[in-house]
Amino acid sequence: MASDPTKVFSNYNAPWTAYREITGQGQYYLRCFEKHAADLDLRDTLTCLSIGAGCGESDAFLISQQMPRLQRYIAVEPDKSNVKDLVPRILEVMPKGANAELYYSSIDDAIDHIQGPVDVVLLFEVIYYILDYSDLFKRLKRLLKTGSKIIVSMCQDDLYKPVGIQHLKTWSGMADVQVIMRDLYPCQKLKEITFDSEYHMSKVNVSSLQVIACTTNVDEDDVTTFKRVVKTNENGMLEYKIDIDIITV
Ligand SMILES: C[S@@+](CC[C@H](N)C(=O)[O-])C[C@H]1O[C@@H](n2cnc3c(N)ncnc32)[C@H](O)[C@@H]1O
């Protein structure tokens, strides 16, 4: 059973391409972006900051489909293997003449070096890895102007906690993020989107569960427990929901 925090994948290495290959989650994200293009309303984005950009699949989609005027894309990504996938993906879709900047570091180390203003901040599936995200939101304020957007996504539940797998260091729901944002930006506008994601239980084995639960400390017993405890639908799919909040400040 996972219990040693030093073996949690930590800030620096969530293997995101592998995660998405196992869960197929990317396709659900892209469908959601397509369906909610009007809610995201990214057409006039000139500068986009992506925190924990991962393998770049979501960002590349949004840049190519929904940010025709983009002039500056800033990615902060501390994981080497993610960066390897991210860079070519982004360069392929950047509008002509636009600039891409990469901070190969954690957001904590990068944030004071980033030059604003920024129109859109993407925080997809990354809040759980950031120990003090309240502090991050405070520090982000310097980069934003009236009308800037912060887009945050999180899985509604920690799927792995009920079976005793120590998951990410910090886990808190979107409700906490909303409280922090309301304190910082009393006049903010909030749009909330939820979409369904799922993956098949047959995909779960020791090595895949290590990737999707973000911990190396998984053994056969954990897999057996997980398969026993977690509810699946009649097709053997584990269903879960992902929230996206769009906060205009
Ligand atoms: C779950 S992945 C999400 C990737 C991407 N945003 C997406 O949704 O496709 C989280 C990413 O955040 C990165 N990350 C983890 N801790 C971070 C930190 N403190 N600052 C910046 N990025 C971080 C990880 O390396 C990983 O690529």
From TrEMBL:
It holds the Pfam family Methyltransf_23. InterPro entries: SAM-dependent_MTases_sf. Gene3D superfamilies: Vaccinia Virus protein VP39. This is Uncharacterized protein. It comes from Capitella teleta.
